[in-house]
Specification:
By secondary structure, the chain is mainly alpha-helical. It has helices spanning about 35-55, 75-90, 110-135; strands at about 60-65, 70-75, 105-110. Helix 1 (about 35-55) crosses helix 3 (about 110-135).
């Protein structure tokens, strides 16, 4: 099983993108700092929680406002996970394109997902905190 989408033209001599060159590959690669690396690892851990909580209620992934093009980009769970892992291994983000005709109702922002997870956590721990204080 792959963590990211498989390139349908991988190894195909007739690959239509074979002649394209990504100019960013010529740039000197600055590895992620320890802080950046830790942030990406935390994002991956958070993503697992968000998917576990939100996928069962129909959320397909996250929407991220692109800083480059100022457009929302819709990422399903697996694609976003693959992009974060790629960033960890290569030190650079993947080239991205907006999803084709996504339904915005099926995607939420990182902030929404974080708030939802926090709300679930608070609800689950609400009764245990009261029980702990009555034991004292």
């Amino acid at each position: 099983m792959h963590d990211e989408p498989i390139d349908p033209f991988n190894g195909d001599p007739a690959d239509p993108a074979a002649g394209l060159h990504d100019p960013r590959e010529d740039d000197a690669l600055d590895p992620l700092t320890d802080v950046e690396r830790q942030d990406v690892l935390e994002d991956l851990a958070d993503l697992e929680i968000y998917q576990a909580l939100l996928a069962p209620i129909g959320v397909r992934g996250l929407v991220i406002e692109c800083e480059d093009c100022r457009e929302p980009h819709y990422f399903d769970w697996d694609l976003l996970r693959g992009n974060l892992r790629h960033l960890l291994s290569s030190g650079r983000p993947r080239v991205h394109e907006p999803a084709y005709d996504p339904d915005p109702d099926h995607y939420v922002t990182w902030d929404y997902a974080r708030g939802y997870a926090d709300g679930v956590h608070d609800t689950l721990t609400e009764g245990t905190e009261e029980d702990d204080s009555s034991d004292a």
